Amino acid sequence: MQVSTFWPKFAKHGKADVTIRDVLDHKAGLVSFGPEFGIEDARKSELISTLIEEAVPLWTPGTKRGYHALSYGFLVDEVIKRLHPQKHSVSQIYEDEVWSEAVTELPLISCMGVGTAEGFAKAIHQKGLISNEVWKSLCSPTTIDEEDIVLSHRKPFGHGFTYEPHPVYKGNVSEGFSNLHSAAKFFLIHSNRSGLYEWLGMGYKWSKWTEET
After folding, report:
1. Spatial distance between the Cα atoms of 28 and 121, rounded to a whole number of angstroms
2. Containing H/E element for 177?
3. Cβ 141 vs Cβ 135: under 8 Å
4. Buried b (16+ CB within 10 A) or exposed e, 172-187
5. Which residues, other chains included, contact 57 with Cβ-Cβ below 8 Å and sequence gap of 6+?
6. b/e string for 125-163 if b means 16 or more Cβ within 10 A?
7. Backbone angles phi, psi at 110, to 5 degrees
8. Distances from the Cα of 51 to the Cαs of 30, 120, 188, 203, in angstroms?
9. What is the 3-state secondary structure (H, E, C) of 88-150?
10. Coil, strand, or helix at residue 41?
C-alpha cells in the first residue's frame, strides 16, 4: 500500500509511490528530512509530519536501501498514527495493547526502555550487569564525543551512563540494557516460549492478547 493513500501530503517531492514496505525496509530514501530540528522538537507531531511531507528523497524510493538510523522511528510512528483507529502513537499502542495485556516480568538482569535511575539501580543490585572496572569509571565524566555531535546536544555523561535525563527519552524510542546471559534468555522466548516458561518455573501461558493476534 502506498503511504500517500492515507497520507495525501506525503506524496510531495516524488514520494507518491513510496509504500509501507519501502518505509519498513529502509528503501524510502528519507534518511534525513532536510531542515535541522532540535531534541525538544522530537515529540511535536505536527512539526515532524510537516518535515516528512516536505522532505525530498535522497534516491528514487524503492530502488536502493539505506539505513534510516535517525529517521526510521519518526516515519513509522507517523504512519502508524494515521492507520490506527484512535490515531495512537507506537508508544501508546505498546502501553495500552501490549504491555498491559501480554507482558510478564521475567527474573532477568535487565531493564526495558530508555534507562532510568530506578531501573539501573535495580539491575545493578541484581549483580552481573557491569564489571568492577566499569563501575569505577562511572565517576569519570568524559568530554564531547561522537554522540554529542550526532545529537547536537552537549550533556555531562560518563562511559555510557548519563548523569541527567537523556534528551532522546522525550521521543518515541525503544532501548534497554542487560547482560549477555539475560539477553539470551529473553530472546529464547521468541523461539521456544513453552520451554522458557517451564525453565523459569512460571508455567506456560498465553495471554488474551496473544491468542487474539
Report:
1. 40
2. strand 176-178
3. no
4. beeeebbbeebeebbe
5. 13, 14, 15, 18, 28, 29, 30
6. eeeebbeeeeeebeeeeeeeeeeeeeeeeebebeeeebe
7. -165, 170
8. 11, 35, 39, 48
9. CCHHHHHHHHHHHHHCCCCCCCEEECCCCHHHHHHHHHCCCCCCHHHHHHCCCCCCCCHHHHH
10. helix
Residue owning grid cell 537523556: 166
Q: Is pLDDT at 145 greater than 80 in this prediction?
A: no
pLDDT tens digits for range 61-70? 999 999 998 8
Would you tell me how many other CB atoms lie within 10 Å of the CB of residue 94?
Answer: 16
Q: How many other CB atoms sit within 10 Å of the CB of residue 43?
A: 13
Q: Give the H/E segment covering residue 77.
A: helix 72-83
pTM of the model: 0.56
Within 13 Å, how many C-alpha atoms sit on residue 172's CB side?
22
* Across 175-202, average pLDDT: 62
